[in-house]
Amino acid sequence: PRFQAVLNLDGWSFGESALQGVRQPYLYISDDSPLPTDADVTSSDPVKRNTSLLTRSDYPRLLHNLARNQGIFCVVVGTDHTSFVDPGRASRMREILGLGMPARARIQRILQAYALAFFRSHLQGIPSNLLNGPSRQFPEVQFRSVDGIKAMVGDR
Q: How far apart are CA 57 and CA 76, in angstroms?
């Protein structure tokens, strides 16, 4: 209750927010990685298995929370989880994993623009068209419909 608005950059929910949801305005920005498969959940690799299990348990709760509280769910096409890590750490992680570098500056501009629009809207009452749907300025950002989320999770 002490927060007025919540921004989640491709993260899991834990504790009270995972169990009871978040009633404040909520913006969830996600990468476009596929959800874990059955093979991921039963993988012999403990990191892959545990992160897959956590994602599988967290995702329905996230969708339910967003649907119940009119949250906003955006996906940034062409990103993975490391795209949401601070730039210095992301480059080292991607190097260790043998991955190429995405357009870091573009991703940072997207995250900054949406975070600023969201918090200005909910903390200062300054509306932004950026939060209303697709934008020509950021075509890689896709919105997931709250009605579509409600249909996926039902009314729990």
A: 22
| Reported pTM | 0.81
Name the amino acid, one letter, at 69: N
Instruction: Read off the pLDDT of residues 74-115 as tens digits, 9 standing for 90 and up.
Output: 999 988 887 887 665 555 555 555 555 457 778 889 999 999
**Residue 48 pLDDT > 80, yes or no?**
yes
Token digits for 50? Answer: 């545990």
Measured between alpha carbons, how far is 150 from 148 in angstroms, rounded to an integer? 5
CB 106 within 8 A of CB 114: no
The answer to whether the CB of 68 falls within 8 A of the CB of 23 is no
Q: By C-alpha distance, which of 57, 62, 71 is closest to 25?
A: 71
Q: How does pLDDT run across 12-31, given as a tens digit for each residue?
A: 988 888 888 888 999 999 99
Identify the residue whose tokens are 């996926």. Answer: 152
- The answer to whether 115 touches 7, Cβ cutoff 8 Å, is yes
Beta bridge partner(s), residue 26: 6
Q: What is the largest CA-CA distance in the chain?
A: 49
